[in-house]
Design a protein that fits this description.
alpha/beta; three-stranded parallel sheet
Length: about 200
């Protein structure tokens, strides 16, 4: 349970396959980043099944699916560590790192770098201001890149922790909204409150 909790709280998508190529462990972020369907998002799914599904979707570009699967399987099996970037059909860009552990298990992490790549492209085109990152992780990824070029970032995230150092929030912060809701409820006689919130800085 502790291991699964740790995996779920990771800031990166993560999966582990055993030495026989069967899925042992993963977190929900891995499922979301790769948009993996429910019939593959479970322990026991094989690496070949996942590669075949991704090749069929077009993750690895055009070509015969079986040939693409064989090539990627061979690349994975040859390398003890792999670093790569891949753009998915929907435009999401992932930084991928795979390592082989001493017992033959293979750990792969996936980090969404879409916002950072978009910021780099905008800055290369001469942007003098970046407007629009919506979520905290995107703001955190874009801000240092823009700050190096003295370009301000106007973001719409509700995570107060990502403001500053060149990032400015144009949003309604949850602290203010929660205070207003509780004040109104208290004024109407309510004294007990419950909330469902993510385990993040939000």
């Amino acid at each position: 349970l502790l291991l699964q909790t740790t995996v779920e709280n990771s800031a990166q998508g993560l999966c582990v396959f055993d030495s026989q190529g069967q899925l042992l462990l993963y977190n929900q972020l891995w499922v979301e980043l790769l948009e993996i369907p429910p019939d593959l998002a479970h322990p026991g799914t094989t690496l070949d099944q996942l590669l075949h599904w991704r090749a069929s979707r077009g993750d690895y570009g055009p070509g015969p699916v079986d040939t693409i699967v064989a090539r990627h399987r061979s690349d994975i099996e040859r390398a003890d560590e792999r670093l790569s970037e891949r753009t998915l059909p929907g435009g999401r860009v992932l930084a991928i790192r795979g390592v082989v552990m001493p017992d033959g298990r293979r750990l792969t992490t996936y980090r969404d770098i879409t916002a950072a790549k978009a910021a780099e492209q905008l800055l290369a085109q001469g942007a003098e201001i970046i407007v629009g990152p919506l979520f905290g992780p995107s703001v955190a990824a874009v801000t240092p890149i823009a700050r190096d070029r003295a370009v301000p970032v106007l973001a719409f995230s509700t995570e107060k922790s990502v403001a500053g150092n060149g990032a400015y929030l144009l949003s309604f912060l949850p602290q203010i909204e929660v205070r207003r809701v509780i004040s109104y409820a208290a004024a109407n006689g309510h004294r007990a409150f419950a909330a469902l919130v993510p385990q993040t800085a939000y």
